[in-house]
Amino acid sequence: MPLAKRWVMIGDLNQLPPVMEEAASTFKVSQPLDELVRDDSFYGWIWDKAQAGSRIMLPRQYRMREPIGRVVSDLFYEGKLIHEAPHPRMPLPWPFDRELVWVDTGAQDEYRDAQRSVANEFEVALCKDITSIIRRRVRKAKLAVIAMYNSQVNRLQGALKGIVPPDDIESVDAFEGRESDGVILSLVRSNDRAAIGFLNDPNRVNVAISRAKKLLVIVGDSKTVIGGAPELFGPLFEHCKEEGLVAGVGAVVTACQRVGIRSHVQRLSRPHRGDRRTRRRRRGQRLPGEAAPNGEGDVPPNGSEPMPIEAEAGSNGAPEPAPVESPRETE
Question: If pLDDT is split at 50, 70 and 90, which confidence band does 198 have?
């Protein structure tokens, strides 16, 4: 550094930019450089304009254990990161006995609240099971639960009282710049249309999966997110298979049994999209295009009917045993 007359240090261009005030976003520009500053691409412009020999990337990362760091490096940094995190692995039961786990929820109905933010109650229950499992085995671990939508954050804060401090349950955007020993990421989106909204943003996904030091658990419907952004979530899903584990809901149920707690996710239904027409008729709801009986008005969908969950097959294809109740259950 002493050899240069001037240094410009810029933040990570592969993560989320600063939040722009609404007034600034409507600011009229007269010069191209003004537009660069307004649209937060100025630092990227500096990086691109600098000669290759005059720009340096700092490649060492000390946060993430190597299996997590390799995924982040391969997907967002052309494999250039050097991993020097010293943290030991968390002593957890299968399937959380490795650093990187994707719990594939399958088809679960998302819904929108009055503010049009998206939530997914099934993922809330799964996050409660997962955090309870970790707390039972590693009580002092610092945990964070992050979600892609504020409505999901609100529901998680209510469900995880006494398990995870509310300040450690945040949206992905709000959690940028922070870290935690274990991070559970709720993707939220699950629908027939593969509609994923602003999940289709590499910078946001990079922030989401790079917050964990020892354990990253992704909770989400792989079919929806891969269908919505195959070039982004497809490689992430494959990396989870190679570097860690992809597990079904039954694996979480079994882990609850092993640590002596009852699974909350079993109290919810698990609808399968192929049965939606049958379920609506059974509940007396009309399908799109059907006439209302006796001149009745529209009946909006009200979620899925309760039905028990059987333990699913784990990653090795063997069925997992059903969970047992324990007097030590943490509500």
Answer: very high
Q: What would the pLDDT profile of 205-264 be if each residue is shown by its tens digit?
A: 999 999 999 999 999 999 999 999 999 999 999 999 999 999 999 999 999 999 999 999
With bands split at pLDDT 50, 70 and 90, how would you rate the model's confidence at 55? confident
Identity of the amino acid at 217: V
Residues in contact with 214: Cβ distance below 8 Å, sequence separation at least 6, in sequence order: 65, 87, 88, 89, 90, 99, 141, 181, 182
Whether the Cβ atoms of residue 143 and residue 92 lie closer than 8 Å to each other: no
pLDDT tens-digit readout, 151-184:
999 999 999 999 999 999 999 999 999 999 999 9
Among 3.40.50.300, 2.60.120.590, 2.60.40.420, 3.40.50.2300, name the CATH number for the domain at 60-267: 3.40.50.300
CATH 3.40.50.300 range(s) for the chain read 60-267
Residue tagged 């999966």 (tokens): 209
Q: Give me the percent of the chain exceeding a pLDDT of 90.
A: 58
